[in-house]
């Protein structure tokens, strides 16, 4: 589809498309397994097992890297900082993020109805914070992830950008 | 907005209903969920009626306007597609900010709680996220209705 946006050239961190895509998978895996898995497999006192905390950290650091990377920076830019094509790319990523988040919230809604019927499956205070954090980080990271997966790989896009 | 497929709700009606939902839904939810004061059975029933009315109005706006739904290719002209994308982008930004604010508030109120905030229950988070779903379903429609100057001038 689209090539690398010009906006990415001024970003504090420049990553190749392949690295950005690997980081995006780490974010989704880290948040999904670390936060949701940690909430499901929580200890009796509500804390997540240490392995899940480690996975969360991987997801979080990957999210931060994607956020300050060119594609992430583009999603945070105002209209005045982008040209017409970049604005369209950013808005398309926002639209897709909105729809994914609505579907995720709907899945959560269905789960909450089922969990209410099955005793003891509703989240405790610790799990509730994990859920909220998972939703918040995912919604922040998704536009950059979508841009990374929509970008057309260039023939010489094999390593890190100079 | 072009009329394609099922008839759409006029912008004026969508604006009025979105205002009514924005006023009635928080009133009913604060009363029924947060319960800052003890409720008599009559008040509780009244709030339940307000809640159901607000949900009915929200559903009407949701069904009657394109909102967050993905339209068929060619169903929207260029201007409409840009306006829809802008409405969805704004809705996304509001969702992101609200989720961050909720997370920060919940973390502060439950971890250490040195600020003296009342500790929220986990059920409140479930309700917040369900309300976020409703907000995100209605918000794009409401934004589109408020930005649709062409139809209001007719």
How would you explain this protein's 3D organization?
- The complex is a heterodimer of chains A (162) and B (154).
- Helices cover 67% and strands 0% of the residues of chain A.
- Chain A has five helices and no strands.
- The radius of gyration of chain A is 18 Å and the shape is elongated.
- Chain B is mostly helical.
- Helix content of chain B is 73%, strand content 0%.
- Chain B has helices at 11-34, 41-64, 78-110, 122-147, 149-153.
- In chain B, α1 runs antiparallel to α2, α1 (11-34) runs antiparallel to α4 (122-147) and α2 (41-64) packs across α4 (122-147).
- The longest helix of chain B is centred in the middle third of the chain and has 33 residues, at 78-110.
- The interface between A and B is medium-sized, with 30 and 35 residues.
Say how many strands of chain B there are: 0
Q: How many structurally independent domains of chain B?
A: 1
Q: Can you count the beta strands of chain A?
A: 0
Radius of gyration of chain A: 18 Å
In which range does the helix fraction of chain A lie?
55-70%
Low-pLDDT runs of chain A? none
Structural class of chain B: mainly alpha
The secondary-structure element order of chain B is HHHHH
Written as H for each helix and E for each strand, in order along the chain, the element string of chain A is HHHHH
In DSSP terms, counting alpha (H) and pi (I) runs of 4 or more, how many helices of chain B?
5
| pLDDT averaged residue by residue of chain A | 80
The shape of chain A is: elongated
Identify the quaternary structure here.
heterodimer
Helix content percent band of chain B: over 70%
Structural class of the helix and strand makeup of chain A?
mainly alpha
